[in-house]
Amino acid sequence: MFRNLLSRLFEEAPDPKPLATEDAEIAVAALLVRVARADDHYNIAERRRIDQVLARMHGLGLADAAERRSVAEMIEAEAPDTVRFTRLIKDRVSLDDRAAIVGAMWEISLADNHRAANEETAIRLVSGLLGVTDRDSALQRQRIAAGR
């Protein structure tokens, strides 16, 4: 299953099709894991927050969200560079949903109450690659920080 999902996520198709719902959820979860791991301190607070974000975004129970995160951790570890990974999401996910993904990345980054430069750099890079402007990313960060 893991290999099949990995090949579906990274298949080179001339006309990319939208991802199946579960595949899209795992691709987004893998991106959240990548941001959380950017500072080399992937801790329990970040894992729990990823589970909460996935549950909220996709209407899942926490157990299902944790299962998706677990698969996403494997996908993220095997995924090629961030550029190719974000291109996949950009090509197959709407701009509004990509902005929400950036908000989720900020939420994960701030989950441990510590602003890490590596995570912030990763979010800025990913935001640009997803086609989300710096301004919209900053607005997402401010929204998340205000809601804490």
From TrEMBL:
<dbReference type="InterPro" id="IPR029024">
    <property type="entry name" value="TerB-like"/>
</dbReference>
<dbReference type="InterPro" id="IPR007791">
    <property type="entry name" value="DjlA_N"/>
</dbReference>
<dbReference type="Pfam" id="PF05099">
    <property type="entry name" value="TerB"/>
</dbReference>
<feature type="domain" description="Co-chaperone DjlA N-terminal">
    <location>
        <begin position="25"/>
        <end position="141"/>
    </location>
</feature>
<protein>
    <submittedName>
        <fullName>TerB family tellurite resistance protein</fullName>
    </submittedName>
</protein>
